[in-house]
Each structure stands twice: as structure tokens, then as C-alpha cells.
């Protein structure tokens, strides 16, 4: 074994095996044209020296890497972890790898990731955009030869392939459910509203409330969609006068809903007795919460796989490619947290 701390080069492998650099290259890239004894000798030198081929350099010389960029809003949210898993499973079938980037709902950070991914010459990019801040950048990336597929977001202009959920329908179903359960004071909690999914869910419940009589809707916009923000919102709502405090909350994702649920318990408010709660995403923790959480179910692994399928099609046949918009329907999963309202 070599004692050098640096990575051995292909020239060192050739020297160790007593062959040309071209022969080592053939063993690495076209082993079938090398005789078995010679191939074995080169392989022994590779193992003895600890040589590792530079895949990045090889693919960059060919013009593209074998990497797919995936930019999501929040890697701490299990929804995006499951989405990434779905994308990665399909990517592996195509001999590609997924590079996961976390924008943290920050458009500046998102742009930095996009710039870096283009510099790495990735095959394509899957992205859940923060908002409309970087729309021109996404279009310019595609124009320069890096396909972009939107994930968990529609592309209204049709300038990219996109995979999404009908979030307006999901929000409306939550509103109708809470109204049917007798709730007349409802609050929507989530944000920022510049995120399209949040805005769509808010529009959905707004339409349900507008169609009902004697129902009011408050909106509490958050700077981010985390459990911590949910707890903070919960304290704010719990401290409202009981006569005007909402009896039901629609949280724009499950992380917010779980934090909100914790705050209700800490403030001595019963769920669902004093406050009904519905989340969104139906992550694994929703069903196992102290009070099982009603939630709108999305299929994140299917979103990831479908987006990767669309990207692979565009990568393999860019000429004449026609963008597709795939929309899945949400499913409201009703559990203990959204029981009927108390009548006071």
C-alpha cells in the first residue's frame, strides 16, 4: 500500500502496473477490450495504490455530470425528506445521484444553490421554489441547457415541467370539514404567503368560509413553517379572549400544527375540546401525536419520483420536448384533533 497521503493518479497506476496510461484508461472505461491477465494486473495496482477514479472530472470533460440537483424549502420537514427519497430511488435506476440543497425559504440562498448547481454542470434541477423571486433565473437555466422541473408547485406559464398537489382543493376541504363540525371561528396559520403552496391553501379555506354563513376566518402569517413558529402562534392564539378566540385552526403544514398542538397543551387548552386542529402533508408524526392529527395527505415520494421521471425524459430527449403539468389530488385524513366544536 502506498504511503502517500495524496490520491494516486492514473499515471502512478500505469507506472506501478508497468503499462501505458491508455491501458489503465481502457481498464476503467472499456475493460472488455483488455486481455484478462493485463486487466487483472491493472486492477491489482489500483487496489494496491488505493486509486479512486475522478468521476466528476470525467463527466465534466464529457460536458455534464451524472448529478441531479434537488432544491427544497426545508430539509428538517419530513415531507421533503420523503420527497427526496422518492427522487433518489428513481435517479439510482438511471445511474445518477441527487445533490440535496436546502433553501430555508430564502430566495438569496436559493439563487446561490442554483448558481452552484449550474457551475457543477448538473444534468438537471428539481426545485420547490421559494416564490417568484428567481423565476427568470429558472427560465434562463433551462435556456442554457439545464432542464428544470418544479416539484410541489405548478408552473402556470407552462415554461417548465411541474408536479404538484391541488392545494386550493386541499384548503377548501379543510374549511368545509371544520364548518361541518360546527366551527364558526377559524384561523389559518402559516407563511410566508409569498410561498405559492401556502397562498393556495389559504385561498382554498377562504373560499370555503366565503360560501358559508356566519363563519369568520382570521389569518396569522408566519415567517417560516416550523414547529417553533407553530408554538409561538399557539401562544398568541391561546392568549386571545375566549369569547373571540377561534375554535379551530388550519395550519399550513404538519410541523406548524404539531408545534401549535404543543402550545395548546402547555396553555391548558384541550384539543379538540377547546381547539380543533388540522395540518397539511400527513407526515408520519401526524398519526402518532399525543392527539392524532387530522391532516391533508400528500404523496411526497410519488411527487419526487414523478418529477424525476419528467426530468429524465427531458434530459434524454431535449429536442422537441413538450413540458407536462402533473397534478395530484389531496386527501383529507380525519383523526381526533378536529372533533366538533363546543357550543358556547
Strand order of the largest sheet: 2-1-3-4-5-11
Total strands: 12
| Intertermini distance | 80 Å
Query: What's the quaternary structure here?
Result: single chain
- Arithmetic mean pLDDT: 90
Main sheet: strands, sense, barrel:
6 strands, parallel
> What is the overall silhouette?
elongated
Please state the CA-atom Rg, rounded to the nearest Å: 26 Å
Counted by DSSP, the helix tally is: 13
Uncertain segments are: 1-5
Q: Give, in order, the helices and strands.
A: HHHHEHEHEHEEHEHEHEHEHEHEE
Taken as a percent bin, the fraction of beta residues is 15-25%
Binned, the helix content reads 40-55%
- Structural classification: alpha/beta
Can you offer a commentary on this structure?
The structure is a single chain. By secondary structure, the protein is of the alpha/beta class. It has 13 helices and twelve strands. The protein has helices at 10-17, 21-29, 36-49, 55-62, 78-93, 107-119, 135-143, 167-180, 196-210, 227-238, 254-266, 284-287, 300-316, and strands at residues 67-72, 97-102, 124-127, 148-151, 161-165, 185-190, 216-221, 248-251, 276-281, 294-297, 325-328, 331-333. The strands form two sheets. A six-stranded parallel β-sheet has the order 2-1-3-4-5-11, with helices on both faces. Strands 7-6-8-9-10-12 form a six-stranded mixed β-sheet, with helices on both faces. Helix 11 (254-266) links the parallel strand 8 (248-251) and strand 9 (276-281). Helix 1 crosses helix 2, helix 1 (10-17) packs across helix 3 and helix 5 packs parallel to helix 13 (300-316). The longest helix has 17 residues, at 300-316. Residues 1-5 have low confidence and may be disordered.
Amino acid at each position: 500500500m502506498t504511503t502517500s497521503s495524496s490520491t494516486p493518479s492514473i499515471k502512478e497506476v500505469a507506472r506501478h502496473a508497468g503499462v501505458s496510461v491508455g491501458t489503465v484508461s481502457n481498464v476503467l472505461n472499456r475493460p472488455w477490450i483488455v486481455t484478462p491477465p493485463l486487466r487483472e494486473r491493472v486492477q491489482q495496482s489500483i487496489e494496491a495504490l488505493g486509486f479512486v477514479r475522478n468521476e466528476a472530472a470525467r463527466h465534466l470533460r464529457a460536458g455534464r455530470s451524472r448529478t441531479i440537483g434537488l432544491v427544497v424549502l426545508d430539509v428538517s420537514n419530513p415531507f421533503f425528506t420523503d420527497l427526496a427519497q422518492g427522487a433518489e430511488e428513481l435517479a439510482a435506476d438511471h445511474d445518477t445521484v441527487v445533490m440535496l440543497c436546502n433553501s430555508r425559504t430564502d430566495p438569496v440562498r436559493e439563487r446561490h444553490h442554483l448558481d452552484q448547481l449550474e457551475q457543477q454542470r448538473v444534468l438537471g434541477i428539481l426545485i420547490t421554489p421559494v416564490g417568484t423571486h428567481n423565476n427568470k433565473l429558472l427560465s434562463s437555466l433551462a435556456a442554457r441547457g439545464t432542464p428544470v422541473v418544479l416539484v410541489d408547485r405548478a408552473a402556470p406559464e407552462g415554461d417548465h415541467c411541474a408536479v404538484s398537489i391541488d392545494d386550493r382543493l386541499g384548503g377548501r376541504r379543510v374549511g368545509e370539514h371544520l364548518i361541518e363540525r360546527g366551527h364558526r371561528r377559524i384561523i389559518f396559520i402559516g407563511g410566508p404567503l409569498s410561498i405559492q403552496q401556502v397562498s393556495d391553501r389559504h385561498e382554498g379555506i377562504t373560499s370555503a368560509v366565503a360560501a358559508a354563513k356566519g363563519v369568520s376566518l382570521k389569518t396569522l402569517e408566519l415567517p417560516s413553517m416550523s414547529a417553533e413558529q407553530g408554538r409561538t402562534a399557539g401562544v398568541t392564539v391561546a392568549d386571545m379572549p375566549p369569547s373571540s378566540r377561534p375554535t379551530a385552526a388550519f395550519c399550513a403544514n404538519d410541523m406548524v400544527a404539531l408545534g401549535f398542538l404543543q402550545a395548546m397543551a402547555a396553555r391548558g387548552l384541550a384539543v379538540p375540546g377547546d381547539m380543533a386542529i388540522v395540518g397539511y402533508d400527513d407526515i408520519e408524526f401526524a398519526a402518532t401525536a399525543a392527539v392524532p392529527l387530522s391532516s391533508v395527505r400528500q404523496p411526497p415520494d410519488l411527487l419526487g419520483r414523478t418529477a424525476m421521471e419528467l426530468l429524465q425524459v427531458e434530459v434524454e430527449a431535449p429536442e422537441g420536448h413538450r413540458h407536462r403539468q402533473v397534478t395530484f389530488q389531496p386527501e383529507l385524513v380525519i383523526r381526533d384533533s378536529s372533533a366538533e366544536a363546543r357550543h358556547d
